[in-house]
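Encode chain A's predicted structure.
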Amino acid sequence: MRVTPPAATIAGVLATPCQNTELMPEAGNIEQVEQATVCLVNQERARDGEPPLAFNAELAQAAAGHCVEMVSQDYFAHVAPDGETPLERIQGSGYIPNSQVGYTLGENIAWGTLSLATPSSIVAAWTASPEHLANILNAAYEDTAVGVAPAAPASLAEGQPGAIYTQEFGVIEG
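Encoded structure for chain A:
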């Protein structure tokens, strides 16, 4: 049974402007970029009547690690070249406490260069994609984290400054 979030919660998310949404990711501002991205995602959820997602440190670990790996190994995919899947990354972070609980997980990834690497551009691309938007609006999810690396895979960026983003979504059921 789906519980409708209090109208005040939704109104509060929509009334709070997101900060730093046009920042170009750099080594010194990654935390602000990650927070801006989550804020924009939560605003998109609120416009659809969904409650905001809560930050989760284990998901943050999985997201950040995936970004660093995609840049260092020069690839862009949910599954790593060694075969590691999003589920395995999230299990490795400790988000899923044991094999006796149920869970629902999702992942969005994106990269961009120049002005397409800002939080606002990345979230706009996700919301324009039906599959990515489905993750953002999934009513089952309660937890999230965004990882950002201040570079894009070399084979994609063609020498331009950019960034790569991973957003993990989850809920532990039981």
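The helical segments are 7-15, 30-47, 57-72, 86-93, 119-128, 130-137, 154-157.
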